Structure formats: structure tokens, C-alpha cells
Amino acid sequence: MSKVPMTAGSYANIVEEVKRLKSVDRPEVIRAIAEAREHGDLSENAEYHAARERQSFIEGRLAELEDKIARAEVIDVSKLSGDVVKFGATVTLADEDTDETTSYQIVGEDEADIKSQRLSVTSPLARALIGKSKGESVEVTTPRGAKSYEIIKVEFK
């Protein structure tokens, strides 16, 4: 069983979603199923089928989240330091072709959001960066071809 790396904030979000699913969504869907059953013939009862489908989704999501919690390896980024790129690092890169700079934080898969400059640890760029230091170059194969980046700065915030 492999560990799932995540930040403390992501872990807290998952725990909160589990609480909501168990305390709010699950009771609501149970009430909806009971109410729909009172309407009679279940074979042609759209509300009943929709509620059962919703229940199935909730139970599947709960199983998925509880599995992630069980396998979670919570990493407190504020306690990390150094100049080598690893999980939680915020890396400033310079495109070697255009000299354009960008920064990305390397986070768990569930936290990844490229618009927020949060890069999944399993992405090709993050995998190329892991273990490298300031001043090193990395080459990543992208859909548009190979790209080269130089690591300008490594920080842990």
C-alpha cells in the first residue's frame, strides 16, 4: 500500500469533506430515498432512482477519501528546508529559450492546480525537478516538444 503525500492543508480539507458527507449529505439522501419510497411504484419513480444514484456517489466518494486518509503521509512544508527540490518546495524556474520565469509549488495530486501554480508531484516537470538544486537545468518532454528550465530558487513556505 503506497503512501499518498499531501500537505497539512489538503489533509484537513479531506477530513472536512468526509465529515460533511457523513453528517450532512448521507442523512439528506437517506431522507430523500425514504420520501421517494412513499410515492409508491419504485420502478417508475425518478426521484427514488436519482436519490439512489446520489447515495451510490456519496458512498463511493467516502470510500475514496477514507482510503486517502489511511494512506496519507502528511508533510508539514513549514518544517522543511534546504536547497534541493522535494515535495512542498516552491521552485522558481527560468525557461532557457525565452528567459521567462515562473514559480511552482510541488504538492500532492489532489492539491494540484496549475492556475494557482501548484504542480502535482507526479507530473513530468515535478518528477524532473525532484532531487535537483539551484543552478541546475532540467529538460522535460512536453506535448509541444522538449523544454529546458534552469532552477533559479528553491524555497519552503
TrEMBL record:
Residues 82-155 form the Transcription elongation factor GreA/GreB C-terminal domain. SUPFAM superfamilies: FKBP-like, GreA transcript cleavage protein, N-terminal domain. Residues 4-74 form the Transcription elongation factor GreA/GreB N-terminal domain. Keywords: DNA-binding, Elongation factor, Protein biosynthesis, Transcription, Transcription regulation. PROSITE patterns: GREAB_1, GREAB_2. One of its GO terms (biological process) is regulation of DNA-templated transcription elongation. It holds the Pfam family GreA_GreB_N. InterPro entries: GreA/GreB_C_sf (IPR036953), TF_GreA/GreB_CS (IPR018151), Tscrpt_elong_fac_GreA (IPR006359), Tscrpt_elong_fac_GreA/B (IPR028624), Tscrpt_elong_fac_GreA/B_C (IPR001437), Tscrpt_elong_fac_GreA/B_fam (IPR023459), Tscrpt_elong_fac_GreA/B_N (IPR022691), Tscrpt_elong_fac_GreA/B_N_sf (IPR036805). One of its GO terms (molecular function) is DNA binding. The keyword DNA-binding applies. The keyword Zinc-finger does not apply. Belongs to the GreA/GreB family. Necessary for efficient RNA polymerase transcription elongation past template-encoded arresting sites. The arresting sites in DNA have the property of trapping a certain fraction of elongating RNA polymerases that pass through, resulting in locked ternary complexes. Cleavage of the nascent transcript by cleavage factors such as GreA or GreB allows the resumption of elongation from the new 3'terminus. GreA releases sequences of 2 to 3 nucleotides. HAMAP family: GreA_GreB (MF_00105). PANTHER family: TRANSCRIPTION ELONGATION FACTOR GREA. This is Transcription elongation factor GreA. It comes from Stella humosa. The lineage of its organism: Bacteria, Pseudomonadati, Pseudomonadota, Alphaproteobacteria, Rhodospirillales.
